[in-house]
């Protein structure tokens, strides 16, 4: 075998079974173990000595060569396992972080603050783009920023665009936008209740984390299979895997945060008369359905509360008259096929 450990296990098993003999292993110089690890030299040496093909060989040199080949295989397998562990460490660090964040979200009772922090970071990125575009045309830059906020968060800003023309007002613009978003979030909290809003945001976070984490695992698996090709460009596949793996991981985290913030700001909460009227309509529909069912049953109620069907509506007992004689299962089929009735039309 490739591993000496397996050979020793086989020897030990035969000894435990009470076998007083000795273990004997048969190996060919054409086997993978000898062919890949030094068997070619031994094969040339034996041919020079005059050994014929198929002739058994017993020699200490051969036993030592086999042992060296097994040692090389063990070292190679150890390096493979060590290499796999290096790849698994990357995923293990990401797994530890993502599950830690998941546990924190489950225990957090102030999740709107997380959403607001994500919104603040996103608006800051928008403002950086605004500063660059405002140098060319301030009016178009302000309009583009307002549209960007509306497309991302579904929020229409009640701000005067003319008051923010120019790069100098970018800080005030950022503060005013965040204040509008903060008011919108506080209004949702007042309408739904702090606990209900927190539970809603928590469910969004948990669903997004579970779904995107599974997609992330598939992405890393594909990256792991493809990163070996970079060795042709004199690059270390493990290093490239770590760099790309963490870049993909951080992109996933940003995607989760932004998706949650979008959904929270886009959600519309309705309470009061609208919901009350909707519930009344639902109850009214249920009552109408029950009334229709009672009318269909006959419209009369017995003293015990059961509906009574009138005697006229009951179907009369009818006698079935057979027009043709009954065909037995083993008789020839009337269709003329020549088969028995049970194997033809009587199936």
Keywords:
347 residues, mainly alpha, two-stranded antiparallel sheet, 10 helices
Description of the structure:
By secondary structure, this protein is mostly helical. The protein folds into two domains: 4-80, no CATH class; 94-266, Helical scaffold and wing domains of SecA, CATH 1.10.3060. 66% of the residues lie in helices and 1% in strands. It has helices at 4-16, 32-36, 39-49, 60-107, 111-134, 138-153, 170-192, 194-226, 237-266, 273-297; strands spanning 300-301, 307-308. The protein has a two-stranded antiparallel ribbon with strand order 1-2. β1 and β2 form a beta hairpin. α4 (60-107) runs parallel beside α9 (237-266). Residues 290-313 have low confidence and may be disordered.
Question: What is the fold's blueprint, element by element?
Answer:
Elements: H1 4-16, H2 32-36, H3 39-49, H4 60-107, H5 111-134, H6 138-153, H7 170-192, H8 194-226, H9 237-266, H10 273-297, E1 300-301, E2 307-308
Antiparallel strand pairs: 1-2
């Amino acid at each position: 075998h490739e591993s000496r450990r397996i050979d020793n296990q086989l020897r030990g098993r035969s000894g435990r079974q009470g076998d007083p003999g000795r273990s004997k292993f048969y190996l060919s110089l054409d086997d993978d173990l000898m062919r890949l690890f030094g068997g070619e030299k031994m094969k040339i040496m034996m041919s020079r000595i005059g050994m014929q093909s198929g002739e058994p060989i017993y020699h200490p040199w051969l036993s030592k060569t086999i042992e060296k080949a097994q040692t090389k295989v063990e070292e190679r397998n150890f390096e493979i396992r060590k290499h796999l562990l290096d790849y698994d460490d990357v995923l293990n660090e990401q797994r530890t972080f993502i599950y830690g964040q998941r546990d924190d979200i489950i225990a957090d009772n102030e999740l709107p603050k997380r959403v607001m922090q994500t919104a603040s970071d996103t608006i800051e990125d928008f403002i950086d783009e605004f500063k660059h575009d405002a140098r060319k045309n301030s009016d178009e830059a302000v309009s583009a920023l307002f549209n960007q906020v509306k497309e991302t968060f579904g929020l229409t800003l009640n701000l005067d665009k003319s008051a923010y023309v120019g790069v100098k007002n970018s800080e005030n613009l950022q503060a005013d936008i965040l204040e509008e978003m903060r008011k919108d979030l506080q209004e949702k909290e007042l309408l739904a209740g702090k606990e209900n809003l927190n539970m809603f945001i928590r469910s969004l976070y948990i669903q997004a984390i579970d779904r995107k984490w599974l997609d992330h695992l598939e992405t890393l698996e594909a990256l792991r299979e493809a990163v070996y090709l970079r060795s042709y460009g004199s690059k270390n596949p493990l290093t490239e895997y770590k760099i790309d793996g963490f870049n993909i991981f951080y992109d996933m985290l940003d995607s989760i945060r932004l998706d949650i913030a979008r959904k929270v700001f886009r959600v519309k909460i309705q309470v009061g008369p609208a919901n009350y009227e909707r519930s009344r309509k639902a109850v009214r529909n249920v009552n109408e359905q029950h009334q229709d069912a009672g009318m269909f049953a006959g419209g009369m109620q017995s003293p015990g509360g059961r509906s009574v069907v009138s005697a006229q509506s009951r179907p009369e007992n009818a006698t079935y008259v057979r027009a043709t004689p009954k065909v037995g299962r083993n008789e020839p089929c009337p269709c003329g096929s020549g088969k028995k009735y049970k194997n033809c039309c009587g199936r």
